[in-house]
Amino acid sequence: MNTKELSAYLGINEKKIYTLITEKKLPATKVTGKWIFLKDMVDDWLERSSGEKPYIKESKDVLMITGSDDILFNRLITIMRKQFPEIFPFFCKTGSLKGLFVLKDGKAHMAGSHLLDEESKEYNLPFIDSYLKEYHIVTVNFAKREQGILIKKGNPKKIKSFEDIARNDIRCINRQKGSGTRKLLDVFIKKFGISSKSIDGYNKEVTTHLEVGLNVLNNEVDFGLGIKAAAKMLDIDFIPLVKERFDIIIFKELFFSQQVQKFLGILRSPQFKKIAKGLRGYDTRDSGKIIYDS
Question: Which residues contact 260 (CB under 8 A, 6 or more apart)?
């Protein structure tokens, strides 16, 4: 479409169109000195601007996944690649909270999350209500998992509980801002009345559970929150704190798409449950169960 045709299509005057182009808010291309507009790109821009539908489109061969890091989740993606080689799953570990924003921005089909709401003691749903309330969302349980303290094998520093994090001889490592594990750490330090400034290493950040475990294994730190599966994999000790619910958050418009249903189908498979049992620290009894449907 040219500018005049787009003006009629959108129901706005041409001056407003030029303003949107100048502000780089409207997709436009200049050809031989004149602005032209591709209808598909304009329609996508309208959907993204309205906030009524996700910007990301259904694709039969690509699955974009974001959100929280998890060892079993990584194994699930490996299974999917082997079982369905025609589908290309991509997993970007942003952390739980940032994953919701990536989803909201239309840059992913689904997000993994284990965000604990301190007031309600509920996982994920209060955050969906806060950040994604204008969308139709389906939330499916991935698994429940044990989260706790990763420490050196044999516990040479005699760490007995979370409160030991504030000891002068304890070096800690933290997860990145926006991750569910960092949120959990903050909930616990508030519960025990500990100041983050008193924690040696509070601002030292990594992005995965295995990175936390490797820092412990290599004696770079004494204390870090992580999942039981990471402790078992690295043969280090583990002090359990919580059993948390890890969910998958999906746009309802994409829930019945081919690649999403194949992904969810693996959650209910005996192969997935067998792998989870071998990794330790996972409860898959509700895996694949719909937790919330808006």
Answer: 63, 109, 110, 250, 254
Tokens of 135: 């969308």
The CATH homologous superfamily to which domain 62-146+244-293 belongs is: Periplasmic binding protein-like II (3.40.190.10)
pTM: 0.80
Cβ-contact 245, 114 below 8 angstroms: yes
C-alpha–C-alpha distance, residues 101 and 115, integer Å: 13
Question: Averaged over 55-78, what is the pLDDT?
Answer: 88
Q: Is the dihedral of CA 267, 113, 110, 228 positive or negative?
A: negative
Residue 15, number of CB atoms within 10 A of its CB: 8
CA distance 192 to 211: 26
8 A C-beta contact, residue 191 and residue 116:
no
CB 8 within 8 A of CB 39: no
Q: Tell me the backbone φ, ψ of residue 54, rounded to 5 degrees.
A: -65, 145
The candidate with the shortest Cα–Cα distance to 213, out of 203, 223, 199, is 223
Instruction: Return all residues near 27 (Cβ < 8 A) that are at least 6 apart.
Output: 37, 38, 41, 42, 44, 45
**Which residues, 6 or more positions from 52, have their beta carbon under 8 angstroms from its beta carbon?**
134
**What distance lies between CA 282 and its chain's CA centroid?**
18
Rg for the chain (alpha carbons), in Å? 23
pLDDT greater than 70 at residue 173? yes
Q: What is the pLDDT of residues 36-45, one digit of tens each?
A: 888 877 876 7
Sign of CA dihedral 178, 176, 210, 190: negative
Q: Please give the CATH number for the structural domain made up of 148-237.
A: 3.40.190.10
